[in-house]
Specification:
The structure is a single chain. The protein is α/β, with parallel strands linked by helices and 246 residues long. It has 11 helices and 7 strands. β4, α6 (114-124) and β5 form a beta-alpha-beta unit. The two termini are 24 Å apart.
């Protein structure tokens, strides 16, 4: 796992995370699971509060969430009736060999220790099963969104995701890329609340948190596309990197 302190920082803001983080468009989830008839058995690895889990359940599949953070697991259970996340990680999933048809990862893949995680994901997948990390990335082709990323230290843009993560190792077929667009409607206060669920803000000093919040207030007060707006449309591009277990 990358930075353990940051990776396990989200539990303190689990309810806000679940409320303000963007959902995944249905088209992206259907593309990730293309070829799997419902009900397939799908692992949501690094499941967080269950945002991806609920999207996959709505498509008629069986979902096994796996999440290391107890605060996030508690929020998942509260928000997803009838579903309990297993305690585990990408490097140590509490599942038998070849037990699942697909492993999906929503926003969490960059936290994985990739080589052991790939081996563990290959272990729990049946041959031919699907592995697909998914990211909601902001559309920084929009000027104010790019400025938002700069002032709040947001790094998960579409280009960096594809460049860094498009190889899952020898157990998997070459990666296919799917891209999907959507927007969320938020007030300026809700944009700030969403950013307060980011690992950078959660692990920042009080002084750095105040600096970020001050810069956000200035952005919303002065940017010509934002000033005076009651709500804004925050555009996203959802990326899916899909591969098969050899």
């Amino acid at each position: 796992m990358a930075d353990v302190t940051q990776a396990l920082s989200f539990g303190a803001a689990a309810a806000e995370y679940d409320r303000f983080r963007p959902r995944y468009p249905e088209a992206a989830l259907r593309w990730a699971l293309d070829g799997l008839a419902a009900p397939a058995r799908v692992v949501d690895l690094g499941a967080g509060t269950g945002i991806l889990t609920r999207g996959v359940l709505a498509l008629g599949h069986e979902v096994v969430p796996v999440e290391p953070d107890p605060g996030m697991r508690a929020q998942l259970a509260a928000a997803t009736p009838g579903t309990t996340a297993l305690a585990g990680s990408a490097e140590a999933a509490p599942l038998p060999d070849g037990a699942v048809d697909a492993v999906l990862v929503g926003q969490a893949y960059h936290w994985f220790d990739r080589e052991p995680a790939h081996a563990e994901i290959a272990r729990v997948l049946r041959p031919g099963g699907t592995f697909a990390p998914i990211w909601n990335t902001r559309d920084e082709g929009v000027d104010w969104v790019a400025e938002l990323g700069r002032v709040a230290h947001l790094g998960d843009n579409a280009g960096s995701v594809v460049e860094k993560y498009a190889d899952f190792g020898p157990a998997f077929t070459p990666v296919e890329l799917g891209g999907f667009t959507h927007t969320t409607t938020l007030t300026p206060d809700e944009v700030a609340a969403m950013l307060h669920t980011r690992s950078y803000w959660l692990t920042a000093t009080p002084a750095e948190r105040e600096r970020v919040d001050r810069a956000l207030r200035e952005l919303f007060a002065t940017h010509p596309d934002l000033a005076g707006r009651v709500t804004v449309e925050l555009p996203y591009r959802t990326l899916v990197l899909r591969s098969r277990r050899r």
